[in-house]
Design goal:
Largest sheet: 8 strands, mixed
Strand order of the largest sheet: 1-2-4-3-5-6-7-8
Number of strands: 23
Shape: globular
Structural class: alpha/beta
CATH topology of the largest domain: Rossmann fold
Number of helices: 16
Strand content: 25-35%
Distance between the termini: 12 Å
CATH class of the largest domain: Alpha Beta
CATH superfamily of the largest domain: Alpha/Beta hydrolase fold, catalytic domain
Length: about 650
């Protein structure tokens, strides 16, 4: 288990020991002006209106009085019906032609005060101007204030902001798939509550600055009680621990002169993120700054926050819906508004399949900004197996999800004399393919043991997989995902108990190979997979008409287990004696509330491989103690440790 440090200096020691990379350490850049540093130290670490005004007086002269001529600002755009439901947008007049990431600043104010902008003051326009000057779209927002508006008003308002941006920010040059939330103080607590509720719209990442996240320690805090309520169950509504399991990139930030209780909250947050992810997150430590100056200095010559913030936001991928691990619910794919019909999506997927087999990428409607990977390696389209494929030998199964704009193809190919099983995931927007993900399995493993492999020329998809379901045996997408995710819970726990329903005729086909001739349920009842160290997965799409759920994921093996006992009392030798990870794209047929069939493409990869598409959204179970559960520095039950 990760030992929670008790002081900021402990975090820095851990930071330097575990990850001293330039990207991680960039937040340690010192302030440029020692005169300001001395003045801030004299102001101290108290959080009062007087201390805020004193800090503003120091930094106001360092900013322009009004937005510069090279930044276009739109004021007081309504994102909801309340008078406080207003936002401002900032963009460079001569900005980039391609859609830019969007940063949304959520101000602080002890839940009862604060504004996105103030006449005759540069704050918080400085955040939006900074964003515009760094090839980002800046957004500053107002939200309802306590005591008139109490919890969960902050979550509700942020939900409305993100929903509005997803529908409208493209008109200002923003990318609706790359929205990052930046919360400061009370604003960080609002963002934390939003992220902890995985039913909210997806965002690509978040920066949380000097907020409070573990409410269980703040029962007597007046500001907390004003917003959350005098009688609220703080343990029930606290963002931690759910916040650490949100499944998106998060950068915690703290100032050297923040009050001790805020620094303690930062440490708890970092410890929870580190334990969940198995490594330190990107961190921001603002030396010599206080609670207010960490935002007020942004846009000045002092870049101790600006540089790591720009690197973090610019590196974010598209937002994905997170898994609700607190409630044990699987992730719901993000809706893009059903831009295409199922027939249109599958028509484009068929175009892609045909062009791939013919090695003619000119016939494919590819976006100029397409992102393309093969076996978790980022490539330039059409590199990789596009040049090597010589024949398609297996029947192609194509399915799609209008809800996400996704389509998938499972087939078998030949590359000269080398057979391969190929799974393709596509993302389609505006009639163009914007994302391409290949997982190509061959007999020769990149790392670890040989991949289980069938005869590509004998590939036959299970008949039930492709059939369209009648309404009486069809599940909602949420219910289908819950049933399908029970497969991974069963695989991970390996306790001889089925944690979902399997049809009696459910079989697993992996790379054309029938993995369990006795059937999936009988196989799992034996608890045969105790050699799995951990299972990480992320749900990508649901074909509701066919009842097919598609997951991307990894099964990690440390290779330390030699033998193990199954539920029938038999001792078995572990098939894996070396570290490696299975990378997979796997589809699950859910019919009549049961898993009716499973088919997957598996690739053996280096140990603890990760997907360039993932945003740390691999679903984990709410119980961190079972074998293969949450990503821990030390698993408390696995026999391999």
């Amino acid at each position: 288990m990760f030992r929670q440090p008790h002081r900021i200096v402990d975090v820095l020691v851990f930071w330097q020991q575990l990850d001293g990379s330039p990207t991680t350490m960039r937040g340690l850049v010192r302030m440029l002006d020692e005169t300001l540093a001395t003045a801030l130290r004299q102001i101290g670490d108290a959080i009062t209106p007087e201390h805020a005004r004193a800090t503003e007086k120091l930094f106001a002269p360092l900013h322009t009085g009004a937005p510069p001529d090279d930044v276009a600002v739109e004021r007081d755009i309504a994102y909801g019906s309340h008078d406080r439901h207003r936002l401002d947008t900032f963009r460079a007049i001569d900005g980039a032609a391609s859609p830019m990431p969007v940063v949304v600043f959520v101000h602080g104010g002890n839940f009862v005060a604060g504004n996105k902008s103030t006449p005759s003051s540069p704050f918080y326009d400085n955040v939006g101007i900074w964003a515009a000057h760094h090839n980002l779209i800046g957004v500053t927002v107002n939200y309802r204030l306590a005591p008139e508006a109490q919890y969960p008003s902050g979550v509700e308002d942020l939900s409305a902001v993100v929903s509005w941006l997803k529908e409208n920010i493209a008109e200002a040059g923003g990318d609706p798939d790359r929205i990052a939330l930046i919360g400061a103080s009370a604003g960080a607590t609002h963002v934390a509550g939003f992220l902890a509720d995985t039913s909210q719209p997806a965002v690509a990442g978040a920066v949380l600055m000097s907020g409070r996240y573990d409410l269980t320690t703040l029962a007597h805090d007046a500001a907390i009680r004003t917003y959350f309520g005098a009688d609220a169950d703080l343990a029930e509504i606290s963002p931690l621990p759910r916040l650490a399991e949100a499944g998106i990139p998060i950068m915690p930030v703290i100032a050297e002169l923040d009050p001790p209780d805020h620094q303690e909250q930062f440490l708890r947050f970092v410890a929870a993120l580190t334990e969940e992810q198995g490594q330190l997150p990107p961190l921001g430590y603002l030396a010599k700054h206080n609670h207010f100056s960490e935002v007020l200095h942004l846009g000045t010559e002092d870049r101790c926050l600006g540089d790591p913030l720009e690197a973090f936001v610019s590196g974010l991928g598209p937002g994905v819906q997170r898994a609700n691990v607190h409630k044990g619910e699987p992730a719901r794919p993000v809706a893009d508004g059903a831009e295409h019909t199922q027939r249109e999506l599958e028509g484009i997927a068929e175009q892609y399949r045909h062009a791939y087999v013919e090695r003619d990428p000119s016939t494919v409607p590819i976006s100029p900004r397409v992102r393309y990977t093969e076996n978790n390696v980022e490539l330039t389209f059409p590199d990789g197996s596009w040049d090597a494929v010589t024949e398609e030998v297996g029947p192609a199964l194509i399915f799609s999800d209008p809800h996400t704009g996704g389509a998938a193809v499972f087939t078998a190919i030949m590359m000269n004399d080398t057979p391969g099983f190929l799974a393709i995931r596509l993302k389609i927007r505006g009639g163009q393919i914007t994302e391409i993900e290949h997982l190509l399995s061959t007999k020769r493993a990149v790392s670890g043991p040989p991949t289980p492999f069938g005869d590509v020329r004998q590939l036959h998809h299970q008949p039930v997989i492709g059939e369209t379901l009648s309404p009486e045996v069809r599940s909602s997408r949420e219910d289908a995902l819950a049933v399908a995710d029970g497969y991974f819970q069963t695989l991970s726990r390996n306790d001889g108990v089925l944690h979902t329903k399997f049809a009696a005729t459910c079989y697993r086909i992996e790379n054309g190979y029938q993995a369990a001739p006795q059937g999936a349920a009988a196989d799992f009842l034996l608890g045969r997979y105790r050699f799995n160290q951990r299972v990480r997965r992320e749900w990508l799409m649901v074909d509701e008409a066919r009842g097919i759920c598609l997951a991307r994921g990894f099964i990690d093996h440390k290779g330390l287990m030699r033998e193990y006992e199954t539920t029938d009392g038999s001792m078995r030798e572990s098939p894996f004696q070396e570290p490696h990870t299975w990378s997979f794209l796997e589809m699950f047929k859910v019919k009549n509330g049961e898993i009716a069939a499973v088919e997957a493409t598996f690739v053996s990869s280096p140990y603890f491989s990760r997907s360039p598409w993932a945003t740390e959204a691999e679903i984990q179970d709410e119980d961190p103690t079972w074998n293969g559960g949450a990503i821990l520095l030390k698993d408390r039950r696995s026999p391999e440790h």
